[in-house]
Amino acid sequence: xxxxxxxxxxxxKEFNIFLLLRLFLVFxxxxxxxxxxxxxxxLTKDPLSLGIIGLMEIIPAFTMALFAGHIVDQKEKRxxxxxxxxxxxxxxxxxxxxxxxxxxxxxxxxxxxxCIYALVFFGGFLRSFFGPIIFSLVALIVxxxxxxxxxxxxxxxWKTAAVLGALFGGFAISWIGVTKTLCVVFFMVLVSFCLVxxxxxxxxxxxxxxxxxxxxLKVGVRFVFQNKAILGALTLDMIAVLFGGxxxxxxVFAQDVLKVGSEGFGILNASISMGxxxxxxATTYIPIxxxxxxxxxxxxxxxxVSIIGFGLSNIFWVSVLMLFISGAADGISMIIRQTxxxxxxxxxxxxxxxxxxxxxxxxxxxxxxxxxxxxAKIMGPVAAVIFGGSMTLITVFAIGVKxxxxxxxxxxxxxxxxxxx
Length: 421
Prior knowledge:
Blueprint: H1 13-44, H2 47-74, H3 77-98, H4 101-106, H5 109-141, H6 147-175, H7 177-196, H8 213-226, H9 228-244, H10 250-257, H11 261-283, H12 292-312, H13 316-344, H14 350-379, H15 381-402, H16 404-407, H17 412-420
Helix pairs in contact: 1-2, 1-5, 1-6, 1-7, 2-5, 2-8, 2-14, 3-5, 3-7, 5-14, 6-7, 6-11, 6-13, 9-12, 9-13, 9-14, 9-15, 10-11, 11-13, 12-13, 12-15, 14-15
């Protein structure tokens, strides 16, 4: 049934709870990201300050990633997830207080800005744990034979939450203001914290509990670098996201290039995720296991072309369309990457492999935000986006030529083998 049933994973009760939990958590996180970017740029009017947000998050996320993966493989996942969500609620509460009338009236702009950066830094530390925990937890909730279907629904839920959070965040800034919007974020995080306890504790599958950290990390990194399919997919996405990401400077386009205000800002952000959602739900009916590598390369190529189109456009709805297409292409590449990781990673190494994935792809989002802000500062936002899209296209051609294992990758046999387990 798992082979043809697009709702196979949804027939598992705990997986539905997990999806609802992730919906609330990512909804709040996405809103918070939008509000922080809007508030920081409103305070500074400097695109480089948006890049610094990314830099403040990538430093702890990158440096802690491997250690976080080691901890996740050694600990029980449900309670560790709850602990991280509780800590994230403190960040949301802190940002809510920083935008209150009392602090805004009494504190200097510089002090508020530095405190925001500090909370973003703490969030980067937590983010290094979220990825490995979620990746490992999904594999403990659903049987291996429906990993691809579960990966599609999990990623689709994440993107759905991202689009709703981005859209509501942009409009909420205009409707109820920054402070009340952050109060909504805090509520969303609390809901996700309550939901996590509806999932039962899971067994620890790592047989080497207490293994020295250095040896544990070495094993995880060695596995990724010896698997050409995983390494190729991660490298492709890392470089594409690093140079092709536009999210970090969308507020510049909304305010200074397209002049569409906070509502337009929310629509621009939401259009990316909406494109991803459409393709992700489509992949529940159209498997991506055949000619997987070629599909990954083509999707990233389309992503690069659409980013260049967005940079060249000065018409709002054309810009929205280009971002929608970029999101659609990115959605396909994300599903393919997650499917490769789920099928190719041993159960006792999921935390560490996911952490390496975070270092390659997750951290490149923040580093890409810094690159986008810096490039926009130096060459202007339009030229920066066109440059990023061009670098993405160059990367696709380079990876396609240099990594034949990824180019010829086909997961049909892996999916069939998982059906027999």
